[in-house]
């Protein structure tokens, strides 16, 4: 009988890492789209400047959104119980994100179909909503994950969610939402400084610098709050890392400071928050020194560090429950079967390098600055 060459525990860790990498890739790549849309009205003061800004991301936003689709697909296929619980608990929040994301392509396609200023202002507003709302709600969702989500299972593993949309908008979650917004504006401003010139570039530099400082302050505040102000989750029973995906067979406790356990037992993980803070500080310095490409790289490193900080703090928890802690979903008890994870891994090893290679090629072809002169010369095919 053929045996799977990778053990179940290793496959679960691999897929946790893949999911984390996809979320980081989404925050870095589509994050600068969301960030630029969030500051559109600040960096661009007239129609031509807005066209310049829109066309810095117009050719790439659809490709960047692939990382969100891949992340959702991984949750659906590799961690189906998390997919089910998340859509039960965050249903209305996800509908808000979906509505905002639908506005984005409509805004790109429609804003230049008619010359009227009022017409274009409406679609510029749609682009702003399509950038700011998802940036905020993604952060709010992470804030609620860190506090635990009010769901439970019955004996047949049916999911029951007992929270409300307003309950998601609690103070800590809103702080995490502001971290997300400032982080993505830093990312968007850095990219826009790289791709534009003159007044638009100067405003983008200022926006990126302010956002970098805000990211440092807000991220540090969230870290202190996590350490001393909210209860984390930890295993009480022995973790079964290669057992069936049944979350009710374990014992979990909530305790203040529990999210700091992994940092205490594995000090090397402290590198993640250090990168998040340090790279944001470097972004503030470099973008003001006109080192736009390096600033965009350090901004991306800051995004990586901030998201990794949350993931490493929560491991192995992925969607904890504050209603019934033992129902919390972890890497060890919410995954698909060993065979499913292995077959999916083969597919990822084949197709992910193709996606990465294509993305690199696209950005190489589209390198260089977007200028008002170029927009005027090619107005018929530009947004």
**Biggest β-sheet: count, sense, barrel?**
2 strands, antiparallel
Q: Strand arrangement, largest sheet?
A: 1-2
What letter string, H or E per element, gives the SSE order?
HHHHHHHHEEHHHEEHHHEEHH
Write down the overall mean pLDDT: 92
**What portion of residues belong to β-strands?**
5-15%
- Overall geometry comes to globular
Structural class by secondary-structure content? mainly alpha
Distance between the termini: 58 Å
Unreliable residue runs: none
How many helical stretches? Answer: 16
Q: What is the helical fraction, as a range of percent?
A: 55-70%
Radius of gyration: 22 Å
Number of domains: 1
**How many E strands?**
6
3D architecture notes:
This protein is mainly α. It has one domain. Helices cover 69% and strands 5% of the residues. The chain contains 16 helices and six strands. The chain has a two-stranded antiparallel ribbon. A hairpin with a 5-residue loop joins strand 1 and strand 2. The longest helix has 31 residues, at 8-38. The radius of gyration is 22 Å and the shape is globular. The termini are far apart. The mean pLDDT is 92.
Give a nutshell description of this structure:
This protein is mainly α and 383 residues long. Helices cover 69% and strands 5% of the residues. Strand 1 and strand 2 form a beta hairpin.
Keywords:
two-stranded antiparallel ribbon, single chain, 16 helices, 383 residues
Give a topology summary.
Layout: H1 8-38, H2 40-43, H3 47-57, H4 61-64, H5 66-78, H6 80-89, H7 91-110, H8 117-147, E1 151-153, E2 159-161, H9 165-168, H10 171-195, H11 198-228, E3 231-235, E4 252-256, H12 261-265, H13 271-288, H14 292-314, E5 317-319, E6 329-330, H15 338-365, H16 372-377
Antiparallel strand pairs: 1-2, 3-4, 5-6
């Amino acid at each position: 009988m053929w045996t799977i060459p990778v053990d179940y525990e290793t496959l679960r860790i691999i897929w946790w890492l893949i999911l984390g990498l996809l979320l980081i890739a989404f925050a870095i790549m589509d994050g600068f789209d969301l960030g630029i849309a969030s500051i559109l009205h600040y960096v661009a003061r007239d129609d031509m400047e807005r066209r310049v800004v829109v066309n810095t991301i117009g050719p790439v936003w659809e490709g960047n959104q692939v990382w969100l689709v891949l992340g959702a697909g991984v949750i659906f296929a590799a961690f189906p119980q998390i997919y089910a619980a998340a859509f039960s608990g965050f249903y209305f929040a996800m509908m808000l994100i979906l509505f905002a994301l639908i506005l984005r392509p409509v805004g790109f396609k429609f804003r230049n179909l008619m010359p009227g200023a009022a017409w274009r202002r409406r679609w510029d507003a749609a682009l702003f909503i399509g950038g700011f709302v998802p940036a905020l709600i993604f952060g709010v969702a992470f804030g609620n994950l860190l506090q635990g989500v009010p769901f439970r299972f019955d004996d047949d593993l049916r999911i029951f969610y007992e929270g409300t949309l307003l309950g998601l908008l609690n103070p800590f979650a809103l702080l995490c939402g502001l971290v997300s917004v400032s982080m993505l504006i830093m990312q968007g401003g850095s990219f826009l400084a790289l791709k534009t010139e003159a007044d638009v570039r100067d405003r983008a530099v200022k926006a990126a610098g302010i956002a970098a400082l805000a990211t440092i302050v807000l991220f540090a505040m969230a870290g202190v709050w996590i350490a001393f102000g909210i209860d984390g989750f930890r295993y009480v029973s022995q973790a079964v890392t290669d057992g069936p995906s049944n979350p009710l067979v374990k014992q979990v406790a909530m305790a203040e400071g529990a999210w700091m356990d992994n940092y205490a037992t594995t000090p090397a993980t402290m590198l993640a928050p250090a990168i998040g803070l340090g790279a944001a500080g470097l972004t503030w310095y470099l973008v003001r020194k006109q080192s736009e490409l390096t600033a965009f790289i350090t901004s991306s490193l800051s995004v990586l560090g901030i998201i990794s900080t949350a993931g490493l703090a929560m491991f192995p928890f992925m969607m904890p429950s504050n209603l019934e802690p033992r129902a919390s979903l972890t890497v060890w008890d919410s995954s698909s079967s060993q065979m499913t994870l292995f077959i999916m891994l083969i597919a990822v090893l084949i197709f992910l390098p193709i996606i990465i290679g294509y993305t690199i090629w696209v950005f190489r072809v589209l390198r260089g600055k977007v200028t008002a002169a170029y927009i005027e010369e090619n107005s018929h095919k530009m947004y």
